[in-house]
């Protein structure tokens, strides 16, 4: 199955469980069930931020830029060592 199909199935099962829990529960469980979509959104956006941040930190999509950056770092180290700075 494709990634989209798996996501759709997981979302559908979660939605059905949430609706059943919302309508069949009482008291504290009902209050928790009402807030579950909010928690799901918070978790999703947290995951998205960490994923984007991790990709940026690794420069995963830009190997040429990563090499260029490493060369510039080496040049800067050599320059400052010639100026007498100990790194």
From TrEMBL:
Name one cellular component (GO) term: dolichol-phosphate-mannose synthase complex
Q: Where in the cell is it found?
A: Endoplasmic reticulum membrane
The pathway it acts in is:
Protein modification; protein glycosylation
Q: Name one GO biological process term.
A: GPI anchor biosynthetic process
Q: State the membrane topology.
A: Multi-pass membrane protein
What keywords are assigned to this protein? Answer: Endoplasmic reticulum, Membrane, Transmembrane, Transmembrane helix
Q: Which residues cross the membrane?
A: 7-26
User: Which InterPro entries does the entry mention?
Assistant: DPM3
Function of this protein? Stabilizer subunit of the dolichol-phosphate mannose (DPM) synthase complex; tethers catalytic subunit to the ER.
Q: What quaternary arrangement does the UniProt entry report? A: Component of the dolichol-phosphate mannose (DPM) synthase complex.
Member of which family? Belongs to the DPM3 family.
Please give the PANTHER family that the UniProt record associates with this protein: DOLICHOL-PHOSPHATE MANNOSYLTRANSFERASE SUBUNIT 3
Q: What is this protein called?
A: Dolichol-phosphate mannosyltransferase subunit 3
């Amino acid at each position: 199955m494709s990634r989209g199909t798996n996501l759709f199935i997981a979302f559908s099962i979660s939605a059905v469980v949430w609706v059943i829990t919302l309508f069949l529960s009482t008291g504290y469980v009902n209050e928790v069930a009402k807030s579950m979509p909010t928690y799901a959104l918070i978790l999703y956006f947290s995951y998205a931020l960490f994923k984007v941040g991790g990709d940026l930190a690794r420069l995963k999509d830009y190997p040429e830029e990563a090499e260029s950056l490493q060369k510039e770092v080496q040049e800067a180290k050599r320059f400052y060592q010639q100026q007498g700075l100990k790194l």
